[in-house]
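User: Modeling request: complex.
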Amino acid sequence: MSWLHASTAFVAAFLASLVECVEALTIVLAVGITRGWRPALLGSATSAIFLALLVAIFGPALGRIPITTLQLIVGILLLLFGIRWLRKAILRAAGVISIHDEAKIYEKEMALMRDAGQPARASFDTIAFIACFKAVSLEGLEVTFTVLAIGAGGSLLLASIGAALAALLVILLGIAFHRPLARVPENLLKFTVGIMLTAFGIFWIGEGLRFPWPGHDLALIAMIALLLLSSALGIRLARARSRALELA
Amino acid sequence: MKALRIALHELWGLFVEDATLTIGTLACVALAAFVLPRVGVAAQWRAPMLFAAVVLMLLENVYRGSRRA
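Assistant: Request completed. Predicted assembly structure:
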């Protein structure tokens, strides 16, 4: 594994984890503030243990699959995952679909938690626990998949460190500010991660099919640059099409 | 059972949002794997052709997506 691969894997895992952790933080904050921190933090911690178990079980198991088969399967899954993010980020950047708004989601979750009613004094707040467990599990599942898929090429430790650092950063910011990180440029991050995962996916598929890549690992950088240009073209196309339809 | 159904639905949602995008992506991979070697495309062109096919498919999907929205 080259330094190029390792550093790209680290950055992709860090950014993907950053996006998902910001989304999970919004829900945990809303639940914690409206219904109390104990069930909210317990739900989040239980989910974190569940996700760590998934990595511990599936991480080593991936090593038993023949490398070309693994590259092909992981490549296809990464491509499907990455291109979904990229398409959405392009359509959001073009103004075709609305931007993900953490502040709005925070207010909505707060209202939902208030409407759910308070538990009896002595009993455990199951609603708060489940809401946080679900939010952290769902967002964390995407991080877990990204880490396992990117790390399958031999950089599992680096990808895990990248994801863990992002989670730590978001937790610290959450403790410091006690409000959702609405100023994080989420679409720009999703755009970057979408491009990186799409490039990684295509690279692994090529390797899995034993197609030689011109420039070997440098092809990854070339693909990232070309995807960036193509995405810019995609934004222009979507924006122009959308405007033309509005005028029609 | 309901929790399992939700979990499977979320897992599916990780990879599939727009069915035509998923089908198009898989078609590009199938094309690269089975068609390119059989029609005699030189080995060094196969990977770049796979990349180009995916990019074109994405642009077409974005264009169509903006029309739908």
